[in-house]
Amino acid sequence: MGLVLDSGVLIAAEREARPVSSLLETLEQEHGETEIVLSSITVIELEHGLHRAKTVEQGRTRRNYLDTVFAAIPVEPFTRDMAQIAAKVDAEARQLGRTIPFADLLIGATALHFGYSVGTRNLRHFQMIPNLAILQI
């Protein structure tokens, strides 16, 4: 089984100055050998944080970290099939009066498409997605 990492996991690791290699080693130790990927939606979230850096140095540090992340973890493009999953999940959630934040909906749809779990620090949003396996990291 694989794992789609949510941006919050990587943001926390970057704030803790934790090397990407250390994060990946810990994930492998705790969850066994598994394919780890990013959704292209996670790239948007991470790059957004880069462009919101308050200083040039912070921006440079974030760029270096993200370059390391993207070199180590494959990014899966968001596809039509994933969009169809997201549309169905969103429509069903709204019929129940729930609104799933759009980025989390798309990341969850990516995981559902591949039959992967989502590795996240944000259980609340992802728990609204039926049949999605979630690992709290």
* Tally of DSSP helical segments: 7
Order of helices and strands: EHHEHHEHHEHE
Order of strands across the main sheet: 3-2-1-4-5
Q: Structural class of the secondary structure composition?
A: alpha/beta
Task: Give me the Rg, rounded.
Answer: 15 Å
Quaternary organization: single chain
- Tally of domains: 1
CATH domain topology: Rossmann fold
Helical content class = 55-70%
Task: Please outline the major beta sheet.
Answer: 5 strands, parallel
Q: What is the CATH level 1 assignment?
A: Alpha Beta
Shape: globular
CATH architectural name: 3-Layer(aba) Sandwich
Question: What is the strand tally?
Answer: 5
CATH superfamily: 5'-nuclease
Mean pLDDT score: 95
Which percent range describes the beta-strand content?
Answer: 5-15%
Residue ranges: pLDDT <50 for 5 or more in a row?
Answer: none
Spatial gap, N to C terminus: 16 Å
